[in-house]
From TrEMBL:
Protein keywords: Amino-acid biosynthesis, Asparagine biosynthesis, Glutamine amidotransferase
Organism ancestry: Eukaryota, Fungi, Dikarya, Basidiomycota, Agaricomycotina
One record GO biological process: asparagine biosynthetic process
SUPFAM superfamilies linked: Adenine nucleotide alpha hydrolases-like, N-terminal nucleophile aminohydrolases (Ntn hydrolases)
Source organism of this protein record: Rhizopogon vesiculosus
Start and end residues of each Glutamine amidotransferase type-2 domain: 91-192
Residue ranges annotated for the Asparagine synthetase domain, each copy included: 519-614
Spans through the membrane: none
Name recorded for this polypeptide: Glutamine amidotransferase type-2 domain-containing protein
Amino acid sequence: MCGIICSLRAGCQGDTDNIHGEPARPDDTFRDLSERLKVVNAARGPDAQGSHHIHIQGTCQCDSGGAQASSPSGACGLDVEFFASELRLRGDTPIVQPHQQGGDVFCWNGEVFEGLDVNADENDGMKLFQSIRSLFTMDDLPSLLGKIEGPYAFVYYHAESRKLYFARDPLGRRSLLIHRPSVSNPHFLLASVSIGNDQVCIMEELSTEVMFCLDIGRLCESNEVVQNFDSCLACIPRYSDQQSLPFAKLSRVNIGLPPDAPPSILSLDSTILPRDLAIAVDHLIEHLDRSVMLRVQNIPRRTSLELGRAHVAVLFSGGIDSTILAFLAHKYHDFALYCNTSSSLSFSRHVPLDEPIDLLNVAFENPRKIQLQTDGNTGAISKREKKRQLKASERNAAAKESTSYMVPDRVTGLQEVEELRRLCHGRTWNFVEVDVPYEESQAARTAVEATMFPGRTVMDLSLAMALYFASKGVGKIRASAVSDDSQPYTSPARVLLNGLGSDELLGGYGRHRTAYTTRGWQGVIDELQLELDRIPTRNLGRDDRVISSNGKETRHPFLSLTVVSFLAGLPVHLKLDPRLELGVGDKMLLRLATRKVGLLEASVRKKRAMQFGSHSARMEAGDGERRGDLMIRAASEQ
């Protein structure tokens, strides 16, 4: 995980700002912007930060008449700065970015999990840099990237052609924002995270549909950055029909309609499943198990003091998605586990057994919810009854304090960690209760709004708040399952597993059931394709910016492009069955898989949105009816 910045602005080294002839400095506004961007992007990579400057020589218009002339010193042109911070999660050797060699510059924010041979002691960014440099031509870059799987955003400057290449992975699992030059702000910027809603840089999410190439040499010669920027920026297709690139694009949802009356299971306890469904269950376990393995193995230990400490955590609600990820992180890569066998198995754990796994469970003190739970709906009761309830609430103030954090996700989390403890012998599960007082959440709001930008809706904020505090991992753990005694605890884990993607791929939302009711199986297929199409533009960039601001990295096993391809290719009726009740038919395939590995309680839990399960949404009186797609007001406007 890294924070990366690339800035480009017109500059003339022949300009001077003092009598000693020293080079002119950037104007105060741009210099201040640059420093602020470095601060927020450095937070993503606390292990190391570095920068590299280059000056692209061009023609000069510095003479008094404004006529174009060649600068004898080669001083006029474009100033380009690369900045990168490093969160070291791959390889044994400390790395300082940007990577540089032969004039080429590479800023890498990503992880290569498949498609490139990277040993446990090697850094994937360095390996990829050498692979790019060894290409016969830069036209082969899409082919190289189309063969690797993992989340990424990158910036690559190719010195020979004076071209800048940049892109995100096809799912957009890593953030990269772009500011295009304008008359009022004539600089070009790429950054992992912005400084928020600020007029000096109007940042927007970079599209994942294509790769981009900026011809800096041509732009430099034009002497007009703003006017000629668009003509110097090219979109590069990720793939062509003549190439077989497994990770160049998202797979399409299987459009085959099921038979008129596809076989239906009676319950999750069905001992005999239709053959195709039974095979799909086994394959889902296999694919998801491998995806988890690739994301939790070989995380470097920075010091010997880290032995026996958690290196992996799960954003944990006690729901089906987070629970099966936690279970697979504990278990081992041996498919015989899921088969009927009594033989003794030899195995190696994905996460070593002597390492705890932290389960991060966040709960918010929500004044509106507390009032409703304590007082009920007071809008239709008499004044006398209101006074009586007010006195009662004052007497029960202490009780409210102790119960305000027993939100739905806390209740299910406490229940589910006990199931994990029963099944996963020898593992220490740290159930981290992250309690967020109302005052603390409000104090963090301005920073969270800036970090999640350009996300600006009510739903963006409620989800971002939950992720921000959960990923900090500051809370408490109980001395035992039955004890109320607890001790402060801050999770040292830097890799956080996230269950995002299962609802979109497996039909976990209520709208999938509605689609079936209104348009049958064809409606479900269309809705699943729409879900897949909009994943890159909805949550992932925002979530990456928020979680990474705490120096943590989120990894999404369900969103491995290998897992996505497998699930997209399955016939729709093997993934969900809207004819069955909630808790059975929604995400049916995952429920059957979860049940097969022994997670009986988790397999029947119903879908609950994170912002409602944690009570991070609708905190104020009157917020109950606010739609999630409404634009937020800045904290200063409240």
